[in-house]
Design goal:
Elements: E1 5-13, E2 19-31, E3 44-48, E4 65-66, E5 71-72, E6 77-81, H1 92-95, H2 106-120, E7 126-132, H3 134-145, E8 150-156, H4 164-179, H5 193-207, H6 210-215, H7 220-233, H8 239-250, E9 265-270, H9 278-288, E10 292-297, H10 305-308, H11 314-323
Parallel strand pairs: 3-6, 3-7, 4-5, 7-8, 8-9, 9-10
Antiparallel strand pairs: 1-2, 2-6
Helix pairs in contact: 2-3, 4-5, 4-8, 5-7
């Protein structure tokens, strides 16, 4: 069982200059903790979840993170925090600030977790950091902001930039929410359910591989039933949380700075990923990061394969970690 814990950062300042007096960060741990003579944890490994999720999302990678797995919790002390802006940690909905919550950036998300680790958990250095999708955006920023803080990176279904199509989809998602009469400029009493469902539908239409939509649904009814199941996920979403998170995502473009990263990195990519395109997002990142290794594979799940088919990467991760 993963049990959530909480740490409060006093007077957290955002990149914009705005401040929150009490920034709450949620996290969970698993594995065996090793400490030095001064009580500092020496075997930490950080896992950062994707666009949706929280501390418990690490369970989706139990085929590669756990006792005896590629990331062996008998050797690593795995810490999985909930991202800044996601419920569980401080966000527009959980803070009570709603539209007054500062617009955060990927850098803010990283710096919040850095303060959690160094100030809350007494960690001066981690063995590695792994991020899935938007969590990988954070890992790359970790490498630029704190290059001496970790020994290796694992980049799972992610890139240093978002494509124009990815920009368009998430920008459209925000437009759908803001245009909904129930949004009321962010001051809604009840979450605008219709806008949330449309946003989930939009996301679903390109999260899988093209083959999945044709081969895994035999009838139109099966497909629409799948859509309805996806819409149910949105019942747990808050409109302001989604808009703020999407704005952080839309600002992700590291450009040529990616070539400054010299930390050993393993890039895990899916050939059929329509969100993180292999040719336009993954290959350019791999080519720019001279100390990176690339492992790519097929998955009918498309982008979802970075969790649903993560077992296909176990050998590659195990080999990579052993070499570091």
């Amino acid at each position: 069982m993963l049990e959530p814990r909480y740490h409060v950062i006093k007077d957290f300042q955002f990149e914009s200059g705005e401040m929150i007096q009490d920034m709450k960060l949620e996290y969970a741990t698993q594995g065996i903790k090793k400490v030095d003579g001064e009580g500092n944890i020496t075997n930490a490994f950080i896992y950062l979840h994707g666009w949706s999720g929280d501390f418990s999302s690490v369970r989706n990678l139990e085929s590669v993170i756990g006792p005896g797995k590629a990331i062996d919790t008998n050797q690593f002390y795995v810490i999985s925090p909930t991202a800044l802006g996601a419920p569980g940690s401080s966000s527009p909905s959980t803070s009570g600030l709603r539209t007054k919550f500062p617009q955060y950036t990927i850098k803010d998300m990283v710096r919040a977790h850095y303060q959690l680790l160094t100030g809350g958990l007494r960690i001066k250095h981690v063995r590695g950091i792994m991020g899935t999708s938007m969590g990988g955006f954070q890992v790359l920023n970790w490498a630029l902001q704190y290059p001496d803080f970790m020994d290796f990176l694992i980049l799972n279904g992610t890139s240093h930039r978002i494509t124009n199509r990815m920009y368009g989809v998430y920008h459209l998602m925000n437009q759908i929410i803001v245009a909904d009469p129930g949004y009321e400029k962010g001051n809604y009493v009840h979450n605008p359910t219709d806008a949330m469902e449309k946003s989930a539908y939009l996301s679903y239409l390109w999260s899988l591989s093209p083959a999945n939509y044709e081969e895994c649904f035999q009838t139109r009814k099966e497909f629409t039933d799948g859509v309805e199941d996806r819409k149910k996920d949105s019942l747990d979403w808050d409109a302001n949380d989604i808009i703020w998170r999407n704005k952080a995502l839309l600002g992700h473009d590291m450009g040529k700075r990616i070539s400054k990263i010299s930390i050993p990195a393993l890039i895990l990519a899916i050939n059929q990923d329509q969100i993180v395109d292999f040719n336009y997002s993954v290959l350019p990142m791999h080519e720019a990061m001279y100390n990176s290794q690339l492992f790519h594979y097929n998955s009918i799940w498309g982008h979802y394969g970075c969790t649903k088919d993560i077992a296909k990467t176990e050998v590659a991760i195990k080999k990579f970690v052993r070499l570091i």
